Here is the input.
Amino acid sequence: MLRGTSAEDLEEPLEKLLHELVKRYEPLAVIIAGSLAQGRFIRGLSDVDILVVVDHPVRDEERFSLAPLKDVDAEVTVVSREELEKAVTAGNEFYLDAVKNGKVVYAREGATLP
Here is the structure.
């Protein structure tokens, strides 16, 4: 996914982080969103947006976190499928963009997204 981009050297640490997120949250899906997913990543200006969709309520303290990937921050947002549906229906730009333009990098078998 990152070959030939300014983020190519982030591929290995990103894969490690994604594996840790799948292990920790047992999600329905994990989506890379924002500039990285759309090929507009700019080193020094962009971060890595990761949306983790789960099938259970999310505690406030686990909803948002930052994870370092070399010299870039990964912003991890954890949301329940129900919350994601409501946010998409309400027109929330971040969630709409993630669902429409993001790259699904993990999906549980049989899982569907709005």
